[in-house]
From TrEMBL:
It comes from the Bacteria. It comes from Thioclava kandeliae. This is TniQ family protein. Pfam families: TniQ. Residues 7-140 form the TniQ domain.
Length: 599
């Protein structure tokens, strides 16, 4: 069928949709409404809106436009709920077809031409996730609908009486998701993981994850501005392009910003979680939904059978102390005691329950229930070690043995396993009495002769693995052991301006030797090698300068709470709420924070 060209024509703008070209062509030929124009020239308006090939071909012939370009940038209905644009297939949810948007800069340029032009309306501008003009880098402005709903694609009529506003320009890095989307449509699918996702899944996931990252869980999607959606899309794109592991790492980071027992997943991820839950009828989102569900099951105390994103939890993997007690049959008090031992919790200031550092897993609870450690009184602990209660108190103050973390307030109980382990360490250093040097004496005598405390002598022995001596090493108790005076003195007579003993270092940092040893192990303070001869080279002491450097950059929770007249537990909770974490030193060690994080 031969179609005669119209006498008055307009140039087709690269990227312009067929409906926009037809609207401009109608106005150029003196027809005010696109619907009327289509009727006059024999075009099916409804088919043209949906990009029917026959109607686009006829329009191209009427207006003298390039058929391929006109078809390429016009959304074309290819099946129920699916369109084709450029080289991409897109679900209808990708489009915003009821409200037209325009570029203020494009309109201003068009109005300044010698022959007044209303400017083309790009096919890309029908996409929900395209919020800027690719040419000018400014936000698109929505047009107010006029007349009948069928005029939604009559771009020239929508512009009647419209005065372009000043453009709102955006940063290039805010358009990262848009750039990817335009390339996907114009050039085809890339090779990355993100490129393999359906476009509506990729774009919406990036935007909603990004909104959670940039605006928080409590932001309302209906109140988010176009500029904020743009920034959210860019932020989410940088995560999602690296795969599901990166997405889960982001969820973990967001989870860590709130104290562990304060809010569950629905509150921490509300915006993102609710959006994903509402996509439950679209199986294309299963890859995202499955990953998020798996993360929640593995990181939050979700009860067996609870519905998470449409699927009941097959088992409870993560627990609170209460659910752990119910599941294991072990008392909550004992569960909390072991969680404190493992560094996963600390007691509340009121003595009631604990604050969690991390949720215990089902495996952790299983380990706790199989442990046989029991709490023993101070009297019993003294009998095991063979020491008086006064000596036991000195050893506890030095951090060599410690109170059971969750023992009743004001009571003095010890973990039997820890007491036995302490004695085992001493026996492991013990040799037969026949090998003892002449200056070997019991611990208390060694403390007197070295002018130091008994606990300091014991700490020196353990830290430097000095040999001990007893008549029956395998059965020796504390009072049966002796140590060389010379060995002790060689490890403690180091100039104070160069090196410190563990006890001196603990005094300077106002902590215990257990924490000092942890600081050494993690490299926060340094050992030095004060002896040059090979015989003593294994003996190490602490570099004084490293202790002073650490003290100038760190503060203990106890000292910080005292300086602020705060309860330590409540202060710690506030710090966690603001994302401030202590140094990782292990269980039973005092917590230290960087000064720069708490000032």
């Amino acid at each position: 069928m031969i179609v005669k060209r119209l006498p008055l024509r307009v140039p087709h703008t690269p990227g312009e949709a067929a409906t926009s070209f037809a609207s401009r062509l109608a106005r150029r030929n003196g027809v005010r409404r696109l619907v009327t124009f289509c009727s006059d020239v024999g075009l099916d308006y409804s088919q043209l809106m949906n990009g029917a090939p026959a109607e686009i071909e006829r329009l191209a012939a009427l207006g003298g436009a390039d058929l391929h370009a006109l078809q390429f940038w016009t959304p074309r209905l290819i099946g129920e709920g699916w369109f084709e644009l450029g080289k991409a297939s897109l679900k209808f949810t990708c489009f915003q077809r009821t409200t037209a948007r325009v570029c203020p800069a494009c309109l201003s340029n068009a109005h300044q031409r010698p022959v007044r032009d209303h400017g083309g309306h790009y096919g890309l501008w029908q996409l929900e996730s395209i919020r800027t003009c690719e040419v000018h880098g400014c936000l698109l402005e929505p047009l107010v609908p006029v007349g009948h709903g069928r005029d939604a694609f009559d771009s020239v009529s929508l512009l009647d009486g419209y005065t372009p506003r000043l453009p709102t320009y955006v940063e290039e890095n805010e358009r990262r998701l848009e750039v990817w989307l335009i390339e996907r449509i114009s050039l085809g699918c890339g090779n990355g993981w993100f490129d393999d996702l359906p476009i509506h899944v990729a774009a919406q996931t990036a935007e909603n994850l990004g909104a959670l990252m940039t605006l928080g869980a409590d932001a309302k999607r209906s109140e988010i501005s176009a500029r904020d959606w743009l920034r959210a899309g860019a932020a989410g794109f940088e995560v999602m392009r690296n795969g599901l592991d990166a997405m889960q790492a982001t969820l973990r980071e967001i989870q860590s910003l709130t104290p562990i027992d304060a809010r569950l997943h629905r509150h921490r991820f509300r915006l993102f979680y609710n959006w994903l839950r509402d996509r439950d009828e679209d199986p294309a989102f299963d890859i995202i939904r499955d990953s998020v569900r798996e993360y929640i099951w593995s990181n939050f105390p979700v009860a067996e059978g609870s519905i998470i994103l449409g699927v009941p939890a097959p088992q409870q993997r993560i627990h609170t102390s209460a659910t752990a007690a119910a599941a294991s049959g072990v008392s909550r008090w004992k569960i909390e005691k072991h969680l404190i031992q493992r560094g996963m919790a600390w007691p509340r200031s009121n003595g009631q329950g604990v604050h969690l550092h991390a949720y215990p897993t089902a495996e952790t609870i299983s380990e706790i229930t199989t442990q046989v450690d029991t709490m023993i009184s101070a009297t019993r602990a003294g009998e095991i070690l063979g020491v008086t209660l006064a000596t036991l108190r000195l050893l506890r103050q030095k951090g060599l043995v410690s109170h059971a973390p969750a023992c009743p307030k004001g009571a003095s109980y010890f973990e039997e396993g820890e007491v036995s382990e302490f004695l085992k360490k001493l026996r492991g250093l013990t040799k037969p009495e026949s090998e003892a040097p002449e200056d070997a004496v019991p611990f208390r005598e060694a403390a007197l002769q070295c002018q130091t405390s008994l606990a300091e002598v014991v700490a020196c022995v353990l830290d430097n693995r000095l040999p001990l001596f007893a008549s029956v090493p395998a059965k020796a108790r504390f009072g049966d052991l002796s140590v060389s005076i010379r060995a002790i003195r060689q490890t403690t007579t180091i100039p104070a301006d160069e090196a410190l003993s563990l006890g001196e270092a603990s005094l300077r940092l106002k902590t215990d030797t257990r924490t000092i040893r942890a600081l050494l192990e993690h490299g926060h303070i340094d050992h030095i090698q004060p002896f040059s001869d090979a015989k003593h080279r294994r003996w190490r002491v602490i570099c004084a300068r490293s202790v002073e450097h650490f003290r100038s950059n760190h503060v203990s929770l106890t000292e910080l709470a005292g300086s602020r007249n705060r309860d330590a537990a409540n202060l710690s909770k506030d710090l966690y709420r603001h994302g401030v974490r202590p140094l990782r030193l292990g269980e039973k060690c005092q917590r230290f924070f960087r000064w720069c994080d708490v000032i």
